[in-house]
């Protein structure tokens, strides 16, 4: 991309070259980056040097490698071999600042969880909505602390011999029965179907770094044809929780479940954490990858909303951005129309019997780029 100077208002100096191929070109066929993913089944054996009797080097249960049934496709976002539509991931329009070199590409998206091109935009939108809801709950209920990120594992004996979908459903149903004993009263719930085999997380990180892969270790592992070599079936729950959690040992003694507390998540990091969790969540056959329980549920947390179009401002200089389609032929950027986003402003409030007065105000915008 050429540096655009305010004195030069021609379009050729500000718009990057859009003819370059999308996705990662240096890595061999990564799934989820635009390149097709093969359907060959990878080996299921544990890597050399794997410690017997350990679950992926991270768990606390006996070896359950035999539970990986070598399904041809994983159950995480981007599991389809081809995009939903031929236009998925194509450039829809540019949002360009006439006063500085800022330019943002708005891509066409189906927002389908299984689309290898569009799942990142689905995950980003879902993460924004989840973060808005959590912040709205914190403000409406005047909670002084941040949510804690925990992951909880069910005993492997409860899902032995099950398919991935059935095992994840068993984990979700089992967690709903024991979550109150943990002490959580409001939480988001995401099911993860897989864990890394011993030593494979480090290998995935090294390979992703070597190929310049734009994603985390899980996404690299899922992009491989032999993804079974990296991961094995071990469904577990990730949750952002509010409440005073009981000790993990006591929780295990009473329920057979173990959980790990990864610490509190500050409000400004909620989108980042939720996006990471959704990136390798169970979505195939799962209508809700991100669930809200307890105080975060729709029964307990309500909202009112207003919808309006707003002019998009440049994040660098606050100048209104201009919308430019690939077919437009404006000589000067100022001739292009202003970019508009459809914004949803939500006001969250706690649903309670006998409540009076106006709901607590928490404006959490959801931005939808205009495509018309």
Descriptive notes:
With 372 residues, the protein is an alpha+beta fold. The protein has a domain at 55-83 and 112-301. The protein is built from 6 helices and 11 strands. It has a 5-stranded antiparallel sheet with strand order 6-3-5-4-7, with helices on both faces. A hairpin with a 6-residue loop joins strand 1 (91-96) and strand 2. The longest helix is centred in the middle third of the chain and has 22 residues, at 119-140. The two termini are 26 Å apart. Residues 1-68 and 356-364 have low confidence and may be disordered.
- Runs in which pLDDT lies below 50 for 5 or more consecutive residues are 1-68, 356-364
> How many β-strand stretches?
11
Strand order of the largest sheet: 6-3-5-4-7
- Helical proportion, percent range: 10-25%
Summarize the structure.
21% of the residues lie in helices and 23% in strands. With 372 residues, it is of the alpha+beta class.
What distinguishing features does this structure have?
globular, five-stranded antiparallel sheet, 372 residues, three-stranded antiparallel sheet, alpha+beta
What topology does this entry show?
Elements: E1 91-96, E2 103-107, H1 119-140, E3 148-153, H2 164-182, E4 184-196, H3 200-210, H4 217-223, E5 231-243, H5 248-255, E6 258-264, H6 270-279, E7 291-294, E8 301-311, E9 322-324, E10 340-350, E11 363-369
Antiparallel strand pairs: 1-2, 1-9, 3-5, 3-6, 4-5, 4-7, 8-10, 10-11
């Amino acid at each position: 991309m050429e540096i655009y100077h305010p004195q030069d208002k021609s379009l050729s100096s500000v718009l990057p070259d859009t003819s370059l191929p999308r996705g990662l070109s240096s890595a061999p066929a990564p799934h989820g980056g635009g390149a097709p993913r093969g359907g060959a089944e990878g080996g299921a054996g544990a890597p050399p040097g794997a410690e017997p009797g350990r679950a992926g080097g991270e768990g606390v249960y006996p070896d359950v490698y035999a539970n990986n049934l070598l399904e041809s496709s994983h159950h995480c976002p981007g599991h389809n071999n081809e995009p939903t539509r031929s236009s998925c991931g194509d450039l829809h329009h540019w949002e360009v600042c006439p006063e500085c070199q800022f330019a943002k590409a708005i891509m066409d998206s189906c927002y389908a969880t299984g689309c290898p091109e569009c799942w990142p935009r689905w995950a980003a939108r879902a993460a924004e909505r989840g973060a808005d809801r959590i912040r709205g709950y914190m403000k409406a209920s005047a909670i002084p602390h941040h949510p804690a990120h925990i992951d909880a594992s069910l005993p492997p004996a409860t899902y032995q011999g099950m398919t991935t979908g059935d095992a994840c459903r068993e984990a979700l149903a089992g967690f709903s029965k024991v979550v109150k004993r943990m002490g959580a009263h409001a939480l988001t719930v995401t099911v993860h179907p897989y864990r890394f085999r011993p030593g494979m997380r480090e290998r995935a990180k090294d390979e992703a770094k070597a190929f310049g892969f734009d994603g985390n270790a899980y996404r690299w592992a899922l992009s491989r044809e032999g993804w079974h070599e990296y991961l094995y079936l071990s469904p577990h729950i990730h949750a952002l929780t509010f409440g005073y959690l009981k000790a993990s040992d006591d929780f295990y003694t009473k329920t057979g479940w173990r959980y790990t507390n990864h610490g509190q998540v500050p409000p400004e990091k909620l989108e980042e954490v939720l996006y990471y969790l959704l990136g390798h969540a169970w979505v195939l056959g799962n209508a809700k990858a991100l669930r809200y329980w307890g105080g975060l549920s729709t029964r307990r947390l309500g909202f009112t909303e207003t919808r309006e179009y707003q002019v998009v401002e440049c994040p660098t200089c606050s100048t209104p951005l201009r919308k430019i389609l690939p077919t437009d032929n404006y000589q000067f950027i100022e001739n292009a129309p202003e970019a508009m986003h459809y914004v949803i402003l939500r006001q969250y409030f706690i649903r309670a019997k006998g409540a009076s007065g106006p709901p607590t105000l928490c404006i959490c915008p959801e931005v939808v780029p205009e495509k018309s």
